[in-house]
Design goal:
The complex is a heterodimer of chains A (about 325) and B (about 260).
Chain A lengths: L1 E6 L4 H11 L4 E7 L5 H6 L4 E5 L5 H15 L3 E5 L2 H14 L3 E2 L4 E4 L5 E7 L4 E6 L6 E5 L34 E8 L11 E5 L6 H14 L2 E4 L1 H5 L20 E5 L5 H7 L4 E6 L12 E4 L2 H18 L1
Parallel strand pairs in A: 1-2, 1-4, 2-3, 4-9, 5-9, 11-12, 11-13, 13-14, 14-15
Antiparallel strand pairs in A: 6-7, 7-8
Chain B lengths: L1 E6 L1 E3 L19 E3 L1 H17 L2 E7 L5 H9 L4 E5 L9 H14 L5 E5 L10 H9 L2 E12 L12 E7 L3 E8 L2 E5 L11 H9 L3 E3 L19 E7 L8 E2 L2 H6 L5
Parallel strand pairs in B: 1-4, 1-6, 4-5, 5-11, 6-10, 7-10
Antiparallel strand pairs in B: 2-3, 7-8, 8-9
Helix pairs in contact in B: 2-5, 3-4
Chain lengths: ~325, ~260
């Protein structure tokens, strides 16, 4: 069995580790770009083989090149990081190869017949769907950064060598469709994905002012502020703070959920948290089934009590 | 500029109700145009107003989707096409992209195709770039703004324009230049769709919605619908993974636990 990982984002290391875990006997092949993370890093994450793609300022041409590389490699499956760029490339490749693609998988496993069982949230994130691609190969899937645990790169791993001659047979002179002219980094980036503590609010917060209160709490805790899609759609907080299926995926040590009901769309983005504390007035809110600590109370009174507690403790120190 | 806008009708809520047997009670939910597609339609209308040409709206769906097309006409679209056939039922993203591609070719091709970046129901965001790939044309996803680049040198052949598109990514905005024919997928909030005009409402009341079927596009059943879809949903379930044993307590008791650092 050949499992390919298309390494077009740093988080591809997680996918290599996952591919390795799916089958110890599989040949895991990493397709890496010359201007991405070092090939040695992906090798250390557990790839058996590295295939180098030339750097390219035209994502359409690069997608076609990846499709041709997979055609030659004939892997059973190919995994892509579900970043904006990775998702585009995966869709471009799937159409070129006329094969199935499942976006934003939250779990991957192998069935008894050796098919890749792909699980993703469905229907607005209320349900999860198990998806198979039985007859077409390769089976393509994309996975968001942070869905699988970070890899433990082993530089001593024998596969960290660089075969270096992978790019030779790949098409070089593809017609140019796109030209990358420039890049403007996001201002005031929200370091959600790397935060160890996250204070998040949902529809229950009710206003911008409410999020300002949660902002104070997250500041006191030295954490970051997150939100559900409902709160972002209501305009109370910018999209950069959105956690869940259509936002970022986080794995903090501590996750405080205020006024969040617990739709799958949101749970998908935070279920990797080490400790989850949920605050909601509805004792039957689904979020409590996914929390370690539950406080059935008004979010404002609870946040105020926590802020007071933290300030008092700070004052006595 | 000949512009095609691909739109989709979606349930007007993110909380689709479930029947007793876990089937979706979609028929009881109001249907709207997917918000990101509205953004695409507005960009199409604005570019047409600026450069001339026409805007055709295309959707694949059940017959009731004609209502959404009438609304698009009332807001200024020139032509509306409904791709509908029982043979399309159960299409995954690849089968959908194939059908849209066939309709695109049937309608004589376009200089620019605009789509929403993803639908609120399926949320795959795949159909747009798959359509671009099948047609092998310049494609930029997640676009927040796009404009026609003024040719710097006079004498550029008429119709051969290039576009500048801002692409929103995780770390910032990428600026792309793409030659037409091109395909862009738009973010929800990029352009706010204009309101219907009186003239538009009048035209929508009388303008016909053109209907296309699989047979008219020479699409064989083997590449359409469930049969033509490489992926298959084998199980749908309420989420059970990730359950945690929840200790319910008061905020005072919680603060005593020492969980907060």
């Amino acid at each position: 069995m050949i499992l390919a990982v298309v390494c077009v984002a740093p988080s591809a290391g997680e996918l290599i580790a996952k591919a390795r875990a799916l089958s110890a006997k599989a040949r895991v092949v990493a397709l890496c770009e010359a201007d991405g993370e070092s090939a040695a890093y992906f090798g250390a994450c557990g790839a058996d083989e590295l295939l180098r793609l030339p750097a390219c300022a035209d994502d359409c041409a690069q997608g076609t090149r990846i499709a041709r590389a997979l055609e030659r490699l004939t892997p059973d499956s190919a995994l892509f990081p579900a970043t904006v760029r990775g998702r585009f490339l995966s869709a471009w490749v799937a159409a070129k190869l006329e094969t199935g693609l499942t976006a934003d998988c939250t779990a991957l496993s192998l069935t008894a017949e050796g098919h890749l069982l792909q699980t993703r949230p469905a229907y607005g994130g209320n349900l999860t769907a198990d998806i198979l691609c039985r007859d077409s190969r390769p089976q393509l899937a994309s996975v968001r950064p942070g869905v699988f645990p970070p890899p433990a790169p082993n530089p001593a791993c024998p596969s960290a060598r660089d075969p270096g001659d992978g790019e030779g047979p790949l098409p070089r002179n593809l017609p140019r469709l796109l030209e990358r002219l420039g890049f403007v980094p996001a201002e005031g980036g929200v370091p959600l994905a790397r935060s160890r503590i996250i204070v998040a609010g949902g529809k229950g917060i009710g206003s911008r002012e409410g999020f300002a209160v949660l902002g104070e709490l997250s500041h006191l805790l030295g954490g970051a502020l997150g939100a559900t899609r409902g709160a972002v759609d209501a305009g109370w907080i910018p999209y950069a703070h959105q956690i869940g299926q259509t936002g970022v995926t986080v794995r903090p040590k501590l996750y405080l959920a205020f006024g969040i009901s617990g739709m799958i769309q949101h749970l998908t983005g935070m279920s990797g948290a080490e400790t989850v504390v949920a605050v909601n007035t509805d004792p039957f809110a689904p979020i409590f089934d996914h929390a370690d600590y539950g406080i059935v109370a008004d979010w404002q009174a609870t946040a105020a009590a926590m802020i007071r507690h933290l300030k008092e403790r700070k004052g006595t120190r | 500029m000949k512009i095609l806008v691909c739109v989709k009708q979606v349930p007007d809520t993110t909380e689709v109700k479930l029947g007793a047997d876990f089937t979706l009670e979609r028929d009881f939910v109001a249907q709207i145009m997917n918000p990101a597609d509205e953004s695409a339609l507005e960009l199409g209308l604005a570019l047409r107003d600026l450069r001339g040409g026409s805007v055709t709206v295309l959707t694949m769906g059940p017959e009731r989707a004609a209502g959404m097309l009438h609304e698009a006409l009332s807001r200024g679209a020139d032509e509306a096409v409904l791709l509908t056939d029982p043979a399309f039922a159960g299409s995954d993203t690849l089968a959908t992209a194939r059908a849209l591609r066939a309709a695109h070719d049937f309608l004589g091709g376009f200089d620019l195709i605009l789509c929403g970046r993803r639908a609120t129901d399926g949320e795959t965001g795949q159909v747009g770039p798959m359509l671009g790939s099948l047609l092998n044309r310049a494609c930029v996803t997640n676009v927040t703004a796009a404009r026609v680049e003024t040719p710097e040198q006079p004498g550029v052949a008429n119709g051969a324009v290039s576009l500048l598109a801002d692409q929103l990514t995780e770390d910032g905005t990428v600026l792309w230049r793409c030659a037409t024919p091109a395909l862009l997928t738009l973010c929800e909030w990029s352009y706010r769709l204009r309101l219907p005009t009186l003239a538009g409402l009048r035209r929508a009341a009388t303008a016909p919605v053109r209907t296309l079927t699989a047979a008219m596009l020479y699409l064989s059943p083997a590449v359409c619908g469930l049969r033509g879809s490489p992926t298959r949903v084998v199980r749908v379930s309420a989420r059970s993974a990730g359950l945690r044993p929840c200790r319910k307590l008061t905020v005072e008791a919680f603060l005593g636990e020492g969980v907060l650092p």
